[in-house]
Amino acid sequence: MYGFEAMTFNVHSGYLEAIVRGYRSGLLTAADYNNLCQCETLDDIKMHLSATEYGPYLQNEPSPLHTTTIVEKCTLKLVDEYKHMLCQATEPLSTFLEYITYGHMIDNVVLIVTGTLHERDVQELLEKCHPLGMFDSIATLAVAQNMRELYRLVLVDTPLAPYFSECITSEDLDDMNIEIMRNTLYKAYLEDFYRFCKKLGGATAEIMSDLLSFEADRRAVNITINSIGTELTREDRKNLYSSFGLLYPYGHEELAACEDIDQVRAVMEKYPPYQSIFSKLSYGESQMLDKAFYEEEVKRLCLSFEQQFHFGVFFAYMRLKEQEIRNLMWISECVAQNQKSRVHDSVVFIF
Amino acid sequence: MAVRGRGGCCPRMDLLRSEAMQLVQIIIPIESAHRTISYLGDLGLFQFKDLNAEKSPFQRTYATQLKRCGEMARKLRFFKEHMTKAGLSPSKKINSEADIVLDNLEVKLGELEAELIEMNANSENLQRAYNELLEYKLVLEKAGEFFYKAQSRATDQQREFEAQNIGEGSIDSPLLLEQEMSIDFSKQVKLGFTCGLVPREKSMAFERILFRATRGNVYLNQVAVTDPVVDPASGEKVEKNVFVVFYSGEKAKNKILKICEAFGANRYPFADEIGKRFQMIYKVSGRISELKTTIDAGLLHRNNLLQTIACQSEQWNLLVKKEKSVYHKLNMLSMDVTKKCLVAEGWCPTFATKQIQDALQRATFDSNSQVGAIFQVLHTQESPPTYFRTNKFTSSFQEIVDAYGIAKYQEANPGVFTIITFPFLFAVMFGDWGHGICLLLATLYLIMQEKKFSGQKLGDILEMTFGGRYVILLMSLFSIYTGLVYNEFFSIPFELFGPSAYACRDLSCRDATTEGLIKVRRTYPFGVDPVWHGTRSELPFLNSLKMKMSILLGVAQMNLGIILSYFNAKFFGSSLNVWYQFIPQMIFLNSLFGYLSLLIIVKWCTGSQADLYHIMIYMFLRPTDDLGENQLFPGQKTLQLVLLLLALIAVPWMLFPKPFLLKKQHEKRHQGQSYAPLHVTDDSIDLEEHHDSHGSHGHEFEFSEVFVHQLIHTIEFVLGAVSNTASYLRLWALSLAHSELSSVFYEKVLLLAWGFNNVIILIVGIIVFVFATVGVLLVMETLSAFLHALRLHWVEFQNKFYEGDGYKFQPFSFAILNDDDD
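^ inputs. structure came back:
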C-alpha cells in the first residue's frame, strides 16, 4: 500500500511522530556547536547546555564536572526519551523501536565478554555499557567460557538469540573470535532489521532500506580495513558482510580481495554515492574516514525527516542524538584536556 | 462607567493609550553598577536591552558570578530535596536581617552542604549495615525454618526407609533434596550450599540461569518474604525471596557465586547446626538494635541541621535569585572602552524618569562612588514597548485583549471598552438572574478569599477562574440585569415589577395566542411581561425581540470600533485614514445596517407590522418599487435610494484613493531624500545616530503590494459588514439555547419529579436538577457564552481598528521574580 500511509498512519503513530519531530527540534544547532567549541572549561559547557534541552539534566550536578558526567546525563536524556516513545508505541512501531536497541545490545555483550576475558570487574564493565542495550541477565555473561555457553546461558533469552545461530562454536573465547562474533551478530541483526523494514513496506521500507544499506556498506568497509593484515581469510571476511546494500554482491567480492586501504578506495570509488566520501581523503589515509562516513550518515538521517508517515524518523532521531552525544563527548574531552585545536577534528554538525 | 472610577488615582486616558516610553541610556561607574541594577530591580520600571546579543553566555563579563549563583541555587535545591525527604517545609516568613553578603552566603552554603553530605554518607553506611543485618536475620529465620523442616522430614523418611527396607527406586520422593539428603546420610558426600536474598522479579530468571549453568545439578529452594525489604545497595524497598541453593563441586560453586553477583542477590553465611544458628540470630538482633539507636541519633542530628537550614532557605533562595537576575542584567550592559563604566540601554515610561534618577542617585550615594551615573534620553525610530498600568481589576480585562495581540505603541486600547462590553455581551447570552446570582456568590467567595488564594498555588482550573474573578463578577452582575430584562429565574417568570399587564378574556385562553389576552393595566414596567412565559407565541415573540436587540448591539459595537479607528488616525496624525478609510467605512456600514437599526427602532416605537426582511431585500433588488404596506415613515423610498447610492460610492472611495495618495506621498518624500547622505554623515558624530540605525529608515514602497493590500482590506470590510452583523445573531442564538435548556431542566426534571408525589423520586429529581444546572448551565454555558463573547470582541469589534502588533513592556523587576517562583 505504498503511498496510502497518510490515511492510517496517524491513527497509531501520529502522536509519536509529532513527539519525535519535537525532539528533533531540540537537537543542538551549528550555532550551539560554535559556542560550545569556544568554551574554556567544562563549567562553561554546562552553562551553555543549561540553556538547551539538556538543562534539567545537568542543573543539579555539583561543580567540578567530568566529561563522563556530561555524557552520562546526556545519554540519560536520550534513554528517557526512548523509553517515553517505547511506552507510547503500538505494534509494529514498538518492535521497530526495539530493533534500534539491538545494536547496543550486541556492543554490550561484546564489551562484557571482552572485559571478563581481561579480568575486569563486572560492575565496572556494567557502568560502561550503553543503557539502551541493557537486558536483565547481562551481568551473567561473565560466567560464560565459550560461545556455546554464552548462548545457552544468557543470550537464548534475549532478542539476540536468533542471530547467534551462525557463531555457536565450542572454541574458547579470545579477542579475535569475539570480534568475529560481534560482526556476525551485527550482520545477522542488520539483515533481520532490513527484512523487518521491507515487510513493513511503504515509505518506511524505502527510507530504512536506504539508511540500513548505508550502514551495511559502512560496516563492510570498516571490516575490510580492520582485517587487513590479520589472518582472516578472504572467505571469512566475505562472510561477515551483510547480504544487502549497494555493495552487495559484486562490491563484496572486490572488497574481500583488498589488501590495503588504497585498494579499498579503488573499489569504493566505483560507487557514485561513496565517491564523494573517498574523494575527500588523501591517499593512504584512513583516520578521517570515520568522520567522513559520519557526516554522510548525518546528512542522510536529516533527509529522512523531509518525508512524513514513516518510521525512519525514529531511527534517524536516535542516531542523530547518539551523534550529538559523541560530539559533546569529543568537545568536552578536548576542553578538559586543553586540546582545543583539535575540537573540529571529530565534531559532525547536525544542522 | 463607574467601574473605571476605581483606578481614579491614575492620570486620565491611561488605559486607552499605553504609557509614553523613552529609550534611555545610563552610564554607570563600575563600582556602583551592581547596586544600581538592584535598585532598578526594586523599582521595576526599566526594561534592559541586550547590548551583547552576539556574545555567548559564558563570554560575557559577569559569567563567573552567574556560575557561582547557579552553583548556590543548586545547593539550595539540594537542601530542599533533603528537606522534602525529611518532611520539613521551608518557613515562609522572611526574616528582616537582610544584610547577608553573597560571598558569606556562598561560604556558608558550601559548609552546610559539606556537612550534610558527610552526615548523609555516615548515615548511609549505617543504614546499609542495618539493612544488611535485617536481611541476614530474614535469611537466618527463613532458611533455618527450611533446614529444620527438611531435616525432620529426612529423619522421618529414613526411619520409614529403614522400616520398610525396600529399594530406593520405589520411593517417589517429591524433592531432589530429600533424596540427596538421604544419600548424604548414607554416603557421606558433602554438598555445598549458599543462601541469600534475590529480588522477586528476577527470581524466575535466576532459577533458570542456575539450572542452565550447572546443567540441572543444583537444588534451589525459595521462600517469598511477605513484606518488601529495603535493599542495602540502593536503599529502596524491593520485594525479595530468600533462597537456598545446594550444589556439588567447586566449579559449580564459582559459577553460582558469579550468577548471584550478576543478579544482585546478596549472600549471607549460614551455619547448618541449630545451636550456632540461634546464637547467630541472637547476635544479629543485638547488632540491629544497637545500629538502630545510632541511626536514630544520626537522623535526629541531621533533622536539626535541616531545621536550621529550613528557616532561612527561603530567604537565601530569594537572595540568590535576585543576585542571579542582577548579574544577568549586568551581562546585558556593554563595557565602556575605558573599562571604568558600564553602559545600559533600555526602555522606561516617561513618568518614571524621576524615580529612576532618584534610584541612580541613591545607588551612587550608597556605594560611595565618586561619580554619579549619567541618565540620558536617546531618540530612536524603533517602536517602543507597550505598557498599560493596570490594577488587579483591570488587568484581567487587559489580558483578554492581550491574548489576541499586544497593542501597537499608543494605539487605542480596546481593553477600556472590553471592561463593560465583554461582560455585557456575555450576559446577553446568559440572561437568567437565578444563574447570575449563583455565579455572583461563587465569584464573591473568590474575591473574599483573595488574600488567601493569591499567595498560594492553585490548580489549573481554579487558577484560571481566580485570575478572572473580576471579569466573572461583572459578568454575573450583568446577567442578573439581563435576567431581569428577560424575566428568567431558572426559567420561572416572576412578577417582580408589579402584575402582568395582560389578563385572560375568558377561561379558555390558556391555549390561546396573544390575541386571547386583553390589556388590563399599563405596560409591564421593566423587561418582558411574565405572561409571555409558557404561551404558544412565547418563542416567536422572544426570538424577534432578541434578534433585533442583537443587531442593535452589534451595529453599535461595530460603529464604536470604526470610531476608534478615527481616534487612532487622529492620534497618529494620518488624515489619509480619516478621509479615505474612516468616513467611507462609516457611510457604508450605517447606510446599510445603521438604516436597519433605525427601522427596528421605528418599528418598535410605532408598533408597525412592516416586514423588515422584505424592506431590506427589496432595497437592493428593486430600489425604485413602491414599499406599499411596508412603509414605516414618509420619504422612506427616497432615503433608501440615497443610502444605497452612498453605500455604492463608499466602496470605490475606500479602495482607490488611498494607495495612489500614498504613492504620491512617497515620491514626494523621496525627492527630498536625494540630499540625505550628507546629512547622515553629520549625524554620525552624534551619539544618537547609532540608535537611529536600528530603526528602519525608509522602507521600500511597492505600489502593487499596497494596492493589493488595500483591495483585500476593502473586500474584507464590505463582506465583513454583512457577515459580522450576522455574526452578532449568536447573541440571540445562545440566549435562546440557554433559556430553552433551563426550561427543559426545570420542566422535564423538577416538575416531572414533583408530579410523582414520591419523596424518593423528588429527591432524585432535585439532585439531577442541581447537577444539570451546575454542570451544564453554570459551567458549560458560561464557558460557551464566554468564548462567544471573546470572539465577538476579537473578530467583530477589534478588526475594525486594532493592529495588535506591539510588544509588551517587560521591566526588570524583583517583584515579578518572586511571583514566578517554582
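The longest helix of chain A spans residues 175-200. The interface with chain B takes residues 35, 38-40, 43-44, 47-48, 50-51, 59-63, 122, 136-143, 152-154, 157 of chain A (CB under 8 Å).
thumbs up if we can close this ticket
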